[in-house]
Amino acid sequence: MKPIPFISGIARIFAIGALLALGVRAHAQTDPLPSWNDGPAKQAVVEFIQATTTQGSPKFVPPAERIAAFDQDGTTWVEQPLYSQVMFAFHQVGLLAKKDPKVAGAEPFKTVLSGDRAAIAKLAIKDLEKIIFATHTGMTVEAFKASVKEWIATAKDPRWNRPYTELVYQPMLEVMKYLRENGYKTYIVTGGGQDFVRVFSEQVYGIPPEQVVGSAVDTKFGYDKNGQAILTKVPKVVLIDDKAGKPAGIHLMIGRRPVAAFGNSDGDRQMLEYTQAGDGARLMMLVHHDDAEREYAYGPKSKVGTFPDTLMVEAKKNGWTVISMKNDWKRIFAWQQ
Amino acid sequence: MKPIPFISGIARIFAIGALLALGVRAHAQTDPLPSWNDGPAKQAVVEFIQATTTQGSPKFVPPAERIAAFDQDGTTWVEQPLYSQVMFAFHQVGLLAKKDPKVAGAEPFKTVLSGDRAAIAKLAIKDLEKIIFATHTGMTVEAFKASVKEWIATAKDPRWNRPYTELVYQPMLEVMKYLRENGYKTYIVTGGGQDFVRVFSEQVYGIPPEQVVGSAVDTKFGYDKNGQAILTKVPKVVLIDDKAGKPAGIHLMIGRRPVAAFGNSDGDRQMLEYTQAGDGARLMMLVHHDDAEREYAYGPKSKVGTFPDTLMVEAKKNGWTVISMKNDWKRIFAWQQ
After folding, report:
1. Taking CB atoms and an 8 Å limit, are A210 and B239 in contact across chains?
2. pTM of the model as a whole
3. Is A226 exposed, middle or buried (0-12, 13-18, 19+ CB in 10 A)?
4. Residue B37 distance to chain A (closest CA, Å)
5. pLDDT tens digits, residue range A42-70?
6. Which of A109, B16, B34, B55 is most buried, by CB atoms within 10 Å?
7. A108 preceded by cis ω (within 30°)?
8. Do A96 and A322 meet the contact criterion of CB atoms below 8 Å apart?
9. Residue in B141, B248, B274 nearest the CB of A218
C-alpha cells in the first residue's frame, strides 16, 4: 500500500532525523588519534581530555585554563642529524659569504663552509652563538621572516629528501587537533628561535605566531630611509627558552601554567615539572626516540635531544607518560603508510 | 472569517520569519558605540572596522591579521594622580614595613611611608625602581598574583572613592568589544607590569592574561620545600614596555604588527608609528585628556601621561585620530549618566 502523502512527509522527516542522529554518533565514535596504536600512551591522552572537558567531572578544567605546551625539536618534528634551524643558519652563512668574502675567510664561518662534518661537530657553543648572531640579527624582522620563508620552502632533509615541514609527527598533529577541538589552546614552547618557528607554525601545526614561545633576541626600534618605523633584530639575547628557561618563557609569554606538556629531552624536564606542580588534572608526556627504522633511535649520548637515564627515572617516579615511537605510533609521518 | 488551520500555520511561520528578520535588522542597526558622540573619532572607528572586515573591500584584513593594541594607563583607565600600580607598590611598602622594621627606617621606603606627597613626588627613578623591586620580586608568581588580587578588590581611588577597576573608560570598552565582535584579537600593551595587569584583564577588559604585553622582570625556576616546581620573580628587567620598547614588546609577545593601536601619551608614539608603517588599512588613535570636570585635563607638563605639543603635531601630520574626552565621549565611566 502506498502511504498517503502526509504520512510520507512525516516519515521522511523522521528518517532525516534518524540519519542526522546516526551522523552525530558516527562522528563521536571516530577515533581522534588514528595514527596511535592502542596502549597506555594513547589512553593517557584520551582519558586526560575526557576528564578535563566533561562538565561535572571532578577533574574539569575551565576553558580559559586549557593550555597545552609542545616542545618542537624531537617532539613534533625530526631533530636529527641536526636541528633544522642550525641547517638554516649554515645555509645563511653560505649566502653571507657570497656577499662578503671576509666572512668566507673567518672562523667559525670557514669551518661551516668547508662542509667538514667532523670539524663542524666540534664547533663550540661560542662559535654557534657567533653563527646564530651573524645569520639571525642585523636585519629587519620582516627581512628575517622572508629568509626563513624562502629556506623552509626549498630546503630538504638529507635522509628523506623532503622539506622539513613534512617531517612532522602525524600522531602529535592529531593530539594537537584533538586538544583544540576540546577547547585547548595549543602552544609551541621551543628552545629554537621563536621568529624562526613563527614563520611556518600556522601552516604546519595550525598554531598562530602569537602562540609560539621560543628563544629570542632583542629588537631595536628605528626608522628606515623613508622615515618608516622598523624593528631590527640585534645580537642581545632576551630569552633562552630551554631547560629552566622554558617555565620562565611560558610565564613571560602566556602567564598561565599549562595543564598539559609534551617534550622529548632533558631540555623539557623543567617544563614538565612546572606543569605537574599545578593543581588538578595534569598530563606530562615524553616522546622517546626508539625507532631507528622509521625515524631514529637515540638516547643519553645523542648530541641533540638528550634523553638521559635520569629523565626516564624521573618520568617513572612522577607518573609521566613515555611515548615509544616504535610501539605507540602506527605511523610517524603523514606520507608513510 | 476564521482561517482554516493549515493556512493559519503557514501564516504563523511567515510571521515568525518576519519577526526574526526584523530582529536581525534591529541588531545590525544597534549602535556598537553608544557612549560616543557622533563625530570624526567615532566615525574613524566605524569606518576602519567596516573597511577591514567587509569581504571584497580593498582594505580587507584577513582574520588572522586582525590585531589591535591598547595602551592601558590613560587610554583604558584613569592614570591620575598616580598610576594605580604605583599606588599598589606604596601599599605593599606598608605591608613590608609591618613585617620588617628595617624597611620602615630605610629610604626610599621611609619617604613613601611618611605620606608626604611633595617628598614622594620628588623620588628619583632609581628610588621608584627600588620600590618596584622590593614589592614586585622575591615571591612566587602565584604569591604576587594573590597580592594584586587582594589589593585590586579593596583599594579605592582617592577622588571618586571607587575601585580602580571601575575607573575604566566605557567608550574604550565598547571599542574593544566592537573590534572583537568583528574578529579582532585585542591586546593590552602597557608600560605597566604585565603580571599586575594580567590579574584583572579578563574581568575588566575581556582580555585574557596571554593577551597582555607589559613590562616584566625575569623569573627564576626552582623548587619549594616540598620539591614542587616554582617560579620566583627576580629583580632583573626583561622588558620595559614603554616608548621604543612597545614595538619590541609587541614583536616579542605577538610576533605580528598590529593594524590598530590606541594610546594617550608620548609613551605610545613608537607603537603608533610601528602600527602605521604596515601595509593596508591602519587605525591610530590618541586619547586626549581635556575634561577636567568629568576626568582630568592635562598635557605637556603632566608628570604622568605626557602629551607634548610635538605629539599633537605628529598626530596631525600622520593622520592619527585624536579623541577629545570632552567632545567625543558621551560618558566616561559606566556608572556616569
Report:
1. no
2. 0.91
3. exposed
4. 32
5. 999 999 999 999 999 999 999 999 999 99
6. A109
7. yes
8. no
9. B248
